[in-house]
C-alpha cells in the first residue's frame, strides 16, 4: 500500500475511535473534516486500483511499470494538493462572510490555476516523465511500461487538478458529502473500466492508464454539476463568474507557495522511505 494511503487510513481509524468521546461541537467539526481525509487518498487510491488489476497479468513487468507510474503520479499530483487546501480556506472565509462575489472568485481563480498547471503537465509530460524515470531507476523493461502508462495517465492532469479545486470549494461551502460521492463514483468507474480495458480488451498498462483518465474527467463533470447547484443556491450569477478571475491573485499565489513547500517536504519524506526501505 502506498505510504500516503496508509497514513490516511491509520489517521482515519484513530479519529473514528475517538468520535465516541467527542462533544456535539467536536462532532460537527469532524463532520466536515472526515470528508477531507477521504479526499486526500483519492490520487494514491486510483493508482492502487490500477496496480491491483495489472497484478493479474502474466508478466511482473506490467505490475512494476504501473507501480513506478503510480508512484510518480502520486508524488506529482500530491505536490499540487495545495490547490485544494488553499481553496477550502479562502472559500470558507467567503462563505462565512456571505459574500457571493468572493465565493465566485475563490472558485474561478484556483480553477484557472489548476487548468493551466494541468495543461502544462500534459503538454510537457514527455520530458517530465524522462526526469521522473531517471530518478526512480529500474530495469529497462519496467521503465518502458512505466513510460507507456504515464504518457496516457498524465493526460488527466487538467481534470485531476481541477477536481482538487472543486473538492476544496465544495468543502469550503460545507457540502461535506461531495468528496465521498466523487471518491466512490470515480473509483467504481475506474475499477469497471480497468477490468474491461485491461482484462477484456487486453490493453495492459495503457488500458489501466486510460481507465483512470476517463474516470478523472467523469468525476470532473459530476463535480461541476454539484458546483452549479451550489452557485444557484448562493445567488452567484454568470456575470459574477465572468469577472471573478480579477482580484488579488497574488494573495492566492503566496498562500499556495507556502503550502506547496510543505507538500514538497512531505512527499520527499515519503519518497525517502520508499527508496531506503
Distance between the termini: 13 Å
**How many helical stretches?**
13
Q: Largest sheet, if any? A: none
* Cα radius of gyration in angstroms: 19 Å
What sequence of helices (H) and strands (E) makes up the elements? Answer: HHHHHHHHHHHHH
Low-confidence stretches: none
The portion of residues forming beta strands comes to: under 5%
Q: pLDDT average, as an integer?
A: 84
What is the domain total for the residues? 1
Helical percentage: over 70%
Shape: globular
Give the strand tally. 0
Question: Regarding quaternary structure, how should these chains be classified?
Answer: single chain
Which structural class should the secondary elements be placed in?
A: mainly alpha
Write a structural description.
One of its GO terms (cellular component) is plasma membrane. It is found in: Membrane. GO terms for molecular function: antiporter activity; xenobiotic transmembrane transporter activity. InterPro entries: DinF-like (IPR044644), MATE_fam (IPR002528). It is a multi-pass membrane protein. The protein is mainly α and 277 residues long. It has one domain.
Amino acid at each position: 500500500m502506498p505510504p500516503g494511503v496508509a497514513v490516511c487510513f491509520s489517521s482515519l481509524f484513530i479519529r473514528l475511535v475517538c468520535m465516541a468521546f467527542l462533544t456535539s461541537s467536536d462532532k460537527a467539526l469532524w463532520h466536515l473534516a472526515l470528508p477531507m481525509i477521504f479526499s486526500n487518498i483519492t490520487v494514491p487510491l486510483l493508482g492502487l486500483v490500477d496496480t491491483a488489476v495489472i497484478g493479474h497479468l502474466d508478466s511482473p513487468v506490467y505490475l512494476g511499470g504501473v507501480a513506478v507510474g503510480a508512484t510518480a503520479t502520486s508524488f506529482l499530483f500530491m505536490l499540487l494538493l495545495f490547490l485544494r487546501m488553499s481553496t477550502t480556506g479562502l472559500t470558507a472565509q467567503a462563505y462565512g462572510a456571505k459574500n457571493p462575489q468572493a465565493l465566485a472568485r475563490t472558485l474561478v481563480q484556483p480553477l484557472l490555476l489548476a487548468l493551466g498547471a494541468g495543461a502544462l503537465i500534459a503538454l510537457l509530460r514527455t520530458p517530465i516523465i524522462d526526469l521522473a524515470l531517471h530518478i526512480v531507476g529500474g530495469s529497462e523493461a519496467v521503465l518502458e511500461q512505466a513510460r507507456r502508462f504515464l504518457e496516457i495517465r498524465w493526460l488527466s492532469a487538467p481534470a485531476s487538478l481541477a477536481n482538487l479545486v472543486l473538492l476544496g470549494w465544495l468543502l469550503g461551502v460545507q457540502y461535506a458529502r461531495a468528496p465521498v460521492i466523487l471518491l466512490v463514483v470515480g473509483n467504481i468507474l475506474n475499477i469497471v473500466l480497468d477490468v474491461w480495458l485491461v482484462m477484456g480488451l487486453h490493453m495492459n498498462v495503457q488500458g489501466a492508464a486510460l481507465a483512470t483518465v476517463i474516470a478523472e474527467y467523469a468525476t470532473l463533470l459530476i463535480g461541476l454539476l454539484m458546483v452549479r447547484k451550489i452557485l444557484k443556491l448562493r445567488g452567484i450569477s454568470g456575470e459574477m463568474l465572468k469577472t471573478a478571475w480579477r482580484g488579488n491573485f497574488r494573495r492566492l499565489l503566496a498562500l499556495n507557495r507556502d503550502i506547496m513547500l510543505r507538500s514538497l517536504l512531505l512527499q520527499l519524506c515519503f519518497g525517502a522511505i520508499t527508496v531506503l526501505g
